Protein backbone atom coordinates (compact mmCIF):
# COMPACT_ATOMS: atom_id res chain seq x y z
CA UNK A 1 0.00 0.00 0.00
CA UNK A 2 1.33 3.48 -0.86
CA UNK A 3 0.42 6.94 0.41
CA UNK A 4 -1.74 7.38 -2.72
CA UNK A 5 -3.85 4.34 -1.81
CA UNK A 6 -4.02 4.94 1.96
CA UNK A 7 -6.65 7.12 3.56
CA UNK A 8 -5.26 10.15 5.45
CA UNK A 9 -5.91 8.28 8.73
CA UNK A 10 -4.11 5.16 7.46
CA UNK A 11 -1.17 7.35 6.42
CA UNK A 12 -1.01 8.92 9.90
CA UNK A 13 -1.02 5.44 11.49
CA UNK A 14 1.63 4.16 9.05
CA UNK A 15 3.89 7.11 9.92
CA UNK A 16 3.22 6.60 13.66
CA UNK A 17 4.35 2.98 13.46
CA UNK A 18 7.41 3.69 11.31
CA UNK A 19 8.62 6.68 13.31
CA UNK A 20 8.01 5.08 16.72
CA UNK A 21 10.00 1.99 15.75
CA UNK A 22 13.11 4.19 15.39
CA UNK A 23 12.38 6.80 18.08
CA UNK A 24 14.73 5.77 20.87
CA UNK A 25 14.26 8.98 22.87
CA UNK A 26 10.48 8.71 22.99
CA UNK A 27 10.62 5.03 23.92
CA UNK A 28 13.36 5.53 26.55
CA UNK A 29 11.18 8.05 28.38
CA UNK A 30 8.30 5.57 28.46
CA UNK A 31 6.03 7.62 26.23
CA UNK A 32 2.97 5.96 24.79
CA UNK A 33 1.16 7.05 21.66
CA UNK A 34 -2.53 7.31 22.47
CA UNK A 35 -3.84 8.61 19.16
CA UNK A 36 -2.77 10.00 15.80
CA UNK A 37 -4.76 11.61 13.00
CA UNK A 38 -3.83 13.91 10.14
CA UNK A 39 -2.19 16.95 11.77
CA UNK A 40 -2.81 15.67 15.30
CA UNK A 41 -1.29 13.42 17.93
CA UNK A 42 -1.73 12.53 21.60
CA UNK A 43 1.04 10.99 23.71
CA UNK A 44 1.29 10.14 27.41
CA UNK A 45 4.23 9.86 29.80
CA UNK A 46 4.34 8.98 33.49
CA UNK A 47 6.66 11.15 35.57
CA UNK A 48 9.36 8.93 37.09
CA UNK A 49 11.78 9.65 39.92
CA UNK A 50 14.67 10.07 37.46
CA UNK A 51 12.71 12.91 35.78
CA UNK A 52 12.59 15.06 38.93
CA UNK A 53 14.70 18.17 39.38
CA UNK A 54 16.19 19.58 42.60
CA UNK A 55 12.74 20.82 43.69
CA UNK A 56 11.26 17.30 43.40
CA UNK A 57 9.09 18.32 40.43
CA UNK A 58 9.30 17.17 36.82
CA UNK A 59 12.20 18.83 35.03
CA UNK A 60 10.88 21.16 32.34
CA UNK A 61 13.10 19.53 29.75
CA UNK A 62 11.15 16.29 30.09
CA UNK A 63 7.84 18.09 29.59
CA UNK A 64 9.30 19.87 26.57
CA UNK A 65 10.47 16.52 25.18
CA UNK A 66 6.97 15.04 25.63
CA UNK A 67 5.47 18.00 23.77
CA UNK A 68 8.16 17.89 21.07
CA UNK A 69 7.62 14.17 20.46
CA UNK A 70 3.87 14.73 20.20
CA UNK A 71 4.48 17.62 17.79
CA UNK A 72 6.74 15.35 15.68
CA UNK A 73 4.04 12.71 15.26
CA UNK A 74 1.43 15.37 14.41
CA UNK A 75 3.46 17.28 11.83
CA UNK A 76 4.82 14.16 10.11
CA UNK A 77 1.37 12.52 9.90
CA UNK A 78 1.06 13.35 6.19
CA UNK A 79 4.23 11.31 5.49
CA UNK A 80 6.27 14.29 4.40
CA UNK A 81 9.60 14.61 6.24
CA UNK A 82 9.02 17.46 8.67
CA UNK A 83 11.33 18.80 11.38
CA UNK A 84 11.05 21.44 14.06
CA UNK A 85 12.32 24.87 13.15
CA UNK A 86 11.68 26.10 16.68
CA UNK A 87 9.35 25.96 19.65
CA UNK A 88 8.38 27.76 22.81
CA UNK A 89 6.91 26.35 25.99
CA UNK A 90 5.18 27.94 28.95
CA UNK A 91 5.03 26.03 32.22
CA UNK A 92 1.79 26.64 34.09
CA UNK A 93 1.88 24.18 36.99
CA UNK A 94 4.32 21.61 38.35
CA UNK A 95 4.12 17.91 37.58
CA UNK A 96 5.03 15.43 40.30
CA UNK A 97 6.36 11.90 40.49
CA UNK A 98 3.64 9.47 39.44
CA UNK A 99 1.68 12.03 37.45
CA UNK A 100 0.53 10.84 34.03
CA UNK A 101 1.03 13.67 31.57
CA UNK A 102 -1.01 13.79 28.37
CA UNK A 103 0.16 15.95 25.48
CA UNK A 104 -2.39 16.78 22.75
CA UNK A 105 -1.05 18.43 19.61
CA UNK A 106 -3.14 20.08 16.88
CA UNK A 107 -2.19 21.72 13.63
CA UNK A 108 -2.92 25.46 13.70
CA UNK A 109 -1.56 26.35 10.26
CA UNK A 110 0.20 24.55 7.41
CA UNK A 111 1.14 26.46 4.29
CA UNK A 112 3.91 25.61 1.84
CA UNK A 113 6.87 24.27 3.78
CA UNK A 114 5.99 25.71 7.19
CA UNK A 115 3.50 24.88 9.89
CA UNK A 116 2.44 25.91 13.37
CA UNK A 117 1.25 23.37 15.96
CA UNK A 118 -0.05 23.86 19.49
CA UNK A 119 0.33 21.25 22.22
CA UNK A 120 -1.37 21.28 25.60
CA UNK A 121 0.01 19.12 28.41
CA UNK A 122 -2.36 18.09 31.19
CA UNK A 123 -2.04 15.80 34.19
CA UNK A 124 -4.30 12.86 35.08
CA UNK A 125 -6.74 15.26 36.76
CA UNK A 126 -7.11 17.26 33.53
CA UNK A 127 -5.16 20.20 34.98
CA UNK A 128 -3.08 22.10 32.43
CA UNK A 129 0.65 22.00 33.26
CA UNK A 130 2.20 23.42 30.06
CA UNK A 131 1.47 24.95 26.65
CA UNK A 132 3.87 24.38 23.74
CA UNK A 133 3.90 26.00 20.28
CA UNK A 134 6.01 24.30 17.63
CA UNK A 135 7.04 25.62 14.24
CA UNK A 136 7.77 23.08 11.52
CA UNK A 137 9.63 22.92 8.23
CA UNK A 138 8.73 20.31 5.60
CA UNK A 139 11.26 18.87 3.14
CA UNK A 140 8.92 18.50 0.15
CA UNK A 141 9.19 15.27 -1.81
CA UNK A 142 10.79 13.28 1.00
CA UNK A 143 8.71 10.79 2.98
CA UNK A 144 8.84 10.73 6.78
CA UNK A 145 8.65 6.92 6.55
CA UNK A 146 9.79 5.14 3.40
CA UNK A 147 7.37 2.75 1.73
Automatic annotation (TrEMBL):
SUPFAM superfamilies: Thioesterase/thiol ester dehydrase-isomerase
Keyword Protein biosynthesis: no
One Pfam family matching this protein: 4HBT
The keyword Hydrolase appears for this protein: yes
Domain of life, per lineage: Bacteria
Domain Thioesterase span(s) in chain numbering: 57-129
This protein's UniProt keywords: Hydrolase
Gene Ontology molecular-function annotations: acyl-CoA hydrolase activity
Family: Belongs to the thioesterase PaaI family.
Name assigned to this protein: Hydroxyphenylacetyl-CoA thioesterase PaaI
Taxonomic lineage: Bacteria, Pseudomonadati, Pseudomonadota, Betaproteobacteria, Burkholderiales
Gene: paaI
Amino acid sequence: MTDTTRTPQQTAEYVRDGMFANDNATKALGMRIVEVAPGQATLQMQVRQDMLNGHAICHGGFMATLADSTFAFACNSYNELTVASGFSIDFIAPAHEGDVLTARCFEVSKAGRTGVYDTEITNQRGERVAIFRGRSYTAKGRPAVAA
